[in-house]
Amino acid sequence: MKSAVIVFPGINRERDMARTLRLVSGREPAMLWHADTALPAGTDLVVIPGGFSYGDYLRCGAIAARSPIMAAVKKFAAGGGLVLAVCNGFQIVCEAGLLPGVLMRNSQLKFICRDVYLRVERSDTPFTRGYNAGQVIRVPVAHGEGNYIADGETIARLESEGRVLFRYASPDGLIDPNWNHNGAMNGIAGILNERGNVLGMMPHPENHVEATIGSTDGRGLFAGLVDHLAKAA
Amino acid sequence: MIPNEPKITPELVAEHGLKPDEYQRILDLIGREPTLTELGIFSAMWNEHCSYKSSKVHLRTLPTKAPWVIQGPGENAGVIDIGDGLAVVFKMESHNHPSYIEPYQGAATGVGGILRDVFTMGARPIACLNALSFGDPKHPKTRHLVSGVVAGVGGYGNSFGVPTVGGQVRFHTRYDGNNLVNAMAVGLAETGKIFYAAASGVGMPIVYLGSKTGRDGIHGASMASAEFDASSEEKRPTVQVGDPFSEKLLLEACLEIMAKGCVIAIQDMGAAGLTSSATEMGAKGDLGVTLDLDKVPTRETGMSAYEMMLSESQERMLMVLRPEKEAEAEAIFRKWGLDFAVVGETTPTKRFIVKHGGAVMADLPIKELGSEAPVYHRPFTETPKQAVIKAADVKPPMGLADALEKLIGTPDLCSKRWVWEQYDHIIGGNTVQRPGGDAAVVRVLEGPKGLALTADVTPRYCEADPFEGGKQAVAEAWRNLTAVGARPLALTDNLNFGNPERPEIMGQFVGCVRGIAEACKALDFPVVSGNVSLYNETQGRAILPTPTIGGVGLLDDFRKSATLAFKADGEAILLIGGDPGWLGQSLYLRDICGREEGAPPPVDLAAERRHGDLVRDFIGQGKVTAVHDISDGGLLVALAEMAMASGIGAKLEAPERQPSHAFWFGEDQGHYVVTAKESETPALLKAAQERGIPARRLGTTGGNALILPTERPILIGNLVSRFEGWLPRYMAGNAA
Fold first, then answer.
1. How far apart are CA B24 and CA B732, in angstroms?
2. Which of the residues in chain B have pLDDT under 50?
3. Rounded Cα distance, B44 and B363, in Å
4. Residue (of B99, B43, B111, B164) closest to B314 by Cα position
5. pLDDT of A215 higher than 80
6. C-beta atoms of B422 and A52 within 8 A
C-alpha cells in the first residue's frame, strides 16, 4: 500500500497516522505539504489526518479545503483513488465538496475526548472489509465539532444508498442518543461518497491499533485497506 | 538621552511596582536617572516574578543534583537523562493572576508558555499536566472560572497537539479571589542535542522568530507580582492572547532548524518578553546585546520602545544563529509562514543597548540587570503547630457506608472526568495510562520505556504545618509514580503563596521549602526546575500555601505499569504500611465532621522509601495485579476508587483496632493497597515481613459492592453515580 498523508499547517495527528500506516502496511507513507501540487506517482491511498488546520480559524477545514494540494486530492478522488479523511480531515473533505453535509459544534458545546463505540454498518467496502457488518468497535474521539448535520434529503440518500459506514452506538450495538456524544444526526460517525472511494469519519481508528495502547479495534480499517489494495494490484 | 520622554517621578516609579529603595538601587547602578524605557526594563526584570527576590535565598537550599540530572534550575526547563541517549525536559509554571482576570486566555497562554519553555531546549513536547485550584463551589464566580480555565487549557493544548494526561482539581474558599493554574509540560530530546540560552561569539546576528509583537501583555509580569484588589478586572488588557496555531508552527520550525544545526542559542519570549530573553542570552554568554527595535515585526503601528520591550505577545523566540546557516534557517521559517528578522547582534561590551527610530532608548549593564536585582531576606514567623487530634475524640456523625457515599461525591474527591474529557489525552498515540489513575503513563517513542507523570500537593496540610505539608507534597508525587511501577527521577516545583511581605506568609513559604528539601534528599528526588508565584491574595486574604510538585518517573517497560482497577474476582487485597488512623486534617474530619483542624499526618520519609521500594519491586516482578496509594479520603476511598474503576467489589475484614472510622478514613502516609492472586499472597506477606514492613490481608475482591463487617453493602453503582455526578451537575448549574 503506497499511502500519502497530507499535512496542512496546524494538522497535529499526522505522526499518529503515519505510525499506524507503517505498523499495519509495513511501509512509510509519503508526507505531503499543503503547498505541494501533486501526489507521488503510484499513490493508492490519500489520508487527511486530524488536527486544527490553520488553527480552525474562520471555520473548521474551510481554509485547508482551498489550499494547493487539494486540487490534486480532488483529481485523485475523481479518478477513483481511495481517500481516508479523519476528524479535521472529515471537516476538510466536507468543505472541499468531496462529501455532503457539515460538522457542527458538539451538542454539549464542549471538546470531548473519550472512547466511543461504533457500529460498523457494512463490511463490503475497501474501508470496512476488515470488520463484520454489525460489529461494534471501540475507538477514541477527540473533537469539538463533530456533530454531523445535513438536509433531510441528503440524509435520506446517505441512508438509502448505504453510505453510512460507522454509527455511534452502545457497547451492544444499539443506536441510542445516550451513546452519541456529539449529537450527530442518525448517530453518523463516518460516511462514504457516492462512488464509495472517499471515507470521512470523526473518530480516530489510528489511535487504537496496539493492544498496549488502548485497543486494536481500529486496526481492521487499515488492515482491510492493505488487503483490498493487495488484491486490486 | 531621549528628550521627549516624561520625567521620572516617584508616582511613575511606584506605578512600575518599584519601591523607593529599589529605585535608589537603579540610580546607584547606572549613575543617572533612567529613561522611561529603562525604567520599564528594570520593572520587568526586578519584579518578583522574574527576579525571585523574595524566594531566591530559600530556593538555593533545594537539592538539585543527581547523576541523572543534566540540567537543574536556571534554564528554561530541567533536563534529566533516561538512558538510550534520550533526555526528558520538563517544567511547571503558574499562570494564576491572568487566569483569574481572563480565565480562558490566562490558562491558554499558561499552557503555551510552558510548552515553549520545553521546546526551546530542543525537546518535542509529549505530555502536559495541570494543577488547578478554584474557590468555594458556592462562590458566584467559581463556575465561570472553572469553565473558562478548563476550556483555555484544552483549547491551547488540543490545538497545539500535545496530550494532557493528568493533574489535579480542587476547591477551597481560600482560592475565591485567586484561583491557581499550574501547567506542566514534558518533552523528549536527544541528550546531545539540548539547546541553551547562553549566546556565544561577538557580532553574531540575533534573530527574532515567530509571531509579531503587539501591545498585549504589557506589564504582565508586574501584575503577577502584585496583590489583587477590587479593581483587578481592569487589568484585563495586560493578559496576553494565545494562538496555539502559531505555536504549533513555531514548534515545528524550531525543531527543524535545530536539527539542521542552525542554532547557537535560543530563548523564548515569556514574561517580560524581549527584555528578559535578550538580556538572558547576553548575560549568560558574558556578552553585550544591541537591539534595533525598528527591525522588530510589529502587529500595530506606532509602538514605542517602551511598549516593544515590555510586550508579552505570545509565540515569539529569540535566537542566535550560525551566520553561515542564516539563509537556510530563514527559508525554514518562511515555509512555516512565520516572521523572521535580524533585530540585533552580540557585542563585546556587556551593555544592553536598545535603539529605536535612530535613537538610543536604553543603555544598561547587561549582567547587573539580573545579578544586581534586589534579594530579600524577608522576615518570617513560623506557623504555630496544631494539636494532634486523637481519633477517639472524633465522634462519627454517621456510619461508614453513609460517610463513604457522601465523601465520594464531594467536590474534592469526585471524578474530574468533566475536566479531562475536554483535554485530548491520547494524541501522540503513546498514552498508556489515561487520567484518573495514580500517575499517567506515556510510552517513550516506540517503547519499551515509559514515563510516569504526576502533579501533587495537599494545601490543607501545608496550611496546618508547612514543613510536613512540603514533605508530603514531594512524598505523594513520589508515591504516585511508585504506584504505577515507575522509578521516581526528578521533580519540578511550582510554589504558590500569598504576600511574602507578611511574615506569617513568608513563614509558610520557608516551612514548605524546608519540607520539600528534606523529602527530596531522603527520596533521592531532586528539583530540576520550578517557578514561584507570590502575592496570591485578595484584600488581605491569602490562598492556602500550595507548593505543587510535578514528578517524573521512569518505567523500563511501560507494559508492566500497574493500574488501580481491581482485575478479577477472588483476589487477595493487601494493605501495605500498617494500620491507618490519622484523622487530623483528613477529608473525613473536614467534610463529614465539619472540622478543618488538627496537625496533618506526619511523613516518615525512611518508611515512605522502604514501603515504596517494596511495592515497586512487587510490580516489577509482576506479582501484584492492582496498586493504589492511600491519600485524600483514606483507605476506604482508595478501595472505592479501585472498585469503581473495575466494577468489581470487595469483602473487607474488620480492623483489629478501633475506632473504625479512623482506620477506614485516616490519611496516614506511605500506605498502599495492592491485590494479588491467592497463590502469591503468602510470598508477598513474607517479603514485606523480611523488610520489616507491616502488611496485612484486608479482604477479597468480588461481587458488586464493598462489604464491611458491620455495615450495609455499599453498591458500586451507587458510588459511581455519586462519584461521576457532582461535577457535571455543578457545571450545569444544578448543584453547589
1. 54
2. 1-4
3. 16
4. B111
5. yes
6. no
B518-574 pLDDT tens trace: 999 999 999 999 999 999 999 999 999 999 999 999 999 999 999 999 999 999 999
B466-503 burial code (b ≥16 CB/10 A, e <16): bbbbbbbbbbbbbbbbbbbbbbbbbbbbbbbbbbbebe
Q: What is the CA radius of gyration of chain B?
A: 26
| CB distance B571 to B675 below 8 Å | yes
Contact A212 B160 (CB under 8 A): no
What's the number of CA atoms in the CB half-sphere (13 Å) around residue B454? 28
Give A233's pLDDT tier (boundaries 50, 70, 90). confident
Count of H-run helices and E-run strands, chain B: 25, 28
Considering only the beta carbons, identify the residue of A13, A19, A20 that sits closest to B427.
A13
| 3-class SS of residue B491 | strand
B550-579 b/e with 16+ CB inside 10 Å = b? bbbbbbeebeebbbbbbbeeebbbbbbbeb
pLDDT at residue B461, as a whole number: 98
Angle between helices A219-232 and A14-25 (to 10 degrees): 60
Tell me the sheet residues that pair with B265.
B320
Backbone angles phi, psi at B670, to 5 degrees: 75, 25
> Is B203 within 8 Å of B140 (Cβ atoms)?
no
The pLDDT of residue B658: 67
pLDDT of residue B736: 55
pLDDT at B688: 98
Residues B255-277: tens digit of each pLDDT: 999 999 999 999 999 888 999 99
Closest by CA position to B481, among listed B457, B456, B452: B452
User: Residue B3: what pLDDT?
Assistant: 43
Entry field: residues in chain A? 233
User: Which residues have CB under 8 Å from B257's CB, separation 6+?
Assistant: B263, B321, B325, B328, B329, B332, B333
What are the CA-CA distances from residue B698 to residues B573, B676, B716 (Å)?
5, 12, 18
Q: Which residue has the cell 461504533?
A: A118
Q: What is the mean pLDDT of chain A?
A: 97
Question: Cβ separation of B161 and A13 shorter than 8 Å?
Answer: yes
The CA distance from A224 to the nearest CA of chain B, in Å, is 21
How many Cα atoms sit within 13 Å of B593 on the Cβ side? 23
- How far is Cα B676 from Cα B618, in angstroms, rounded to an integer? 10
Contact B593, B394 (CB under 8 A): yes
Distance from CA of B493 to the nearest CA of A (A): 28
Closest CA to B629 of B484, B461, B511, B518: B484
Cα separation, A138 vs A166, in Å, equals: 11
For chain B, give the percent of residues with pLDDT over 90.
Answer: 91
Contact B248 A12 (CB under 8 A): yes
Give the number of residues written for chain B: 736
Place of cell 441510542: A176
Chain B residues with CB inside 8 Å of A51's CB? 161
**B598 in reach of chain A (CB within 8 A):** no
Determine how many CB atoms are found less than 10 A away from the CB of residue B707: 18
Q: What is the largest CA-CA distance in chain A?
A: 46
Distances (CA, A) of B201 to B106, B257, B264, B274, B352: 37, 19, 9, 20, 16
With a cut of 70, say whether residue A138 has pLDDT above it.
Answer: yes
Least CB-CB distance to B559: which of A12, A55, A212? Answer: A212
Looking at residue B227, its pLDDT comes to: 73
| Residues of A with Cβ-Cβ distance to B426 under 8 angstroms | 113, 140, 142, 204, 207, 214
| Diameter over CA atoms, chain B | 87
Q: With CA atoms as reference, report the closest residue to B75 among B313, B340, B280.
A: B280
